[in-house]
User: What shape does this take?
Amino acid sequence: MKFHKIPTLSNYIYALILFLVFTGPYSFASTFIQVEIQQQNQYREFKGKVVDSNTGNDITLAVLNLQGTNISTITNSDGEFSIKIPISIKEGAIKISYLGYQSKILPLSDFKTENTQIELSEVVEELPEINLLDHGNATELVRAMMDKRGENYSDQKDIITAFYRESIQKRRRNVSLSEAVVKVLKQPYTSGKKDQISIFKARKRTDYERLDTLALKLRGGPYNTVFLDVMKYPEFLFTGVISDNFNFKLYNVTRINNKLVYIVNFNENDTSQPWYSGKLYIDSESLALIKANFSMNVEDRDKASRIFVKKKPSAAYVYPVDVVYQVDYRESNGKWYYSYSRAQLEFVVNWDNKLFNSRYTLTGEMAVTDREKFSNGNLKNTDQFISSSVVMVDDVSGFTDRDFWGDQNIIEPEKSIQNAIEKIQRNIKKDPQ
Assistant: This one.
């Protein structure tokens, strides 16, 4: 009998475990040490938008990278970005790239403090016929991708700076928002050691009244997104013998940043439990995984509920209806590095003696904004690391400070989140804590 992957990942705090409890006089225990950052404002900030040159549509999750450095950011769901550059860098250029579009490199002099408009053009070319003779078939291609993990990905300890955002929506209204700048001690991809996270700054606000008689706790915090790095944690997605457990099929070929990329569809063969399916984007030259989009089939409500829901009121029936994941990698000097990940889960809550159900969307995302080689001076001491069972603590103080993030690069808040932040600020002014 196959031992399904989900229980085996409980040791890693499987991405976005849900806890449901009655509201009442309880508090979130603070399980991390928050480190103050001196805000020296020794930076220039540029803001703008990335759009399709033909349609004018927003381009979501386009990557902006300051050439010659590891400083980077991404656009939000509205195509908007903010990137902060140290004032010590007088000249330079930023590369803007996105899947299926021609990358563009622009000098810093082209960027404005507000309303920088960047247009990317779709790549229109006749791609070569797919030839997988060197790899036999799609399954062999994926096997080769996994075998070359140590060669294609970082073989050293790195310190990455990243921005993490975690939100809960009821219907379309934000009822909980957490944000943090974190440092991650990233272990080599061939090492069995797990990554560790230290929080620099964090802020959170939850409107418990709008959660009705229900409070949702996300256990794991930033670890939820770090463990989506499937090349570091292949057991998250691929377990056992790949050829036995999964069906792979070559779907298409495309170009990403002028690289020829294979797109491989996959799905699990065993559908007796909630199962995965999705797409792998594999660089044809290095055979590195550069992107993965996948989802979990949760049509069997009872089994899906047992996986995600660890505690709930007896009068509630809770089950997921949509579970979607994404992870992206970025290349630098011949190596590929974790760059971005996102997990989005939608839950339905049915209450006894209530006519209508409640629907919640839980989203966690992390974007790497800087990276450096690990040295003893990168982190002060190990007691800064948070536990992988952390629950983000309520702290609204950061929402009153418009310069809260200082020189740290973050993902610009989309319109709905920006509205939530403005509302939090108004509520704090009305009722100071």
Observations:
- Residues 1-39 have pLDDT under 50 and may be disordered.
- The longest strand covers residues 316-332.
- The chain has two domains: 5-35+130-430, 45-120.
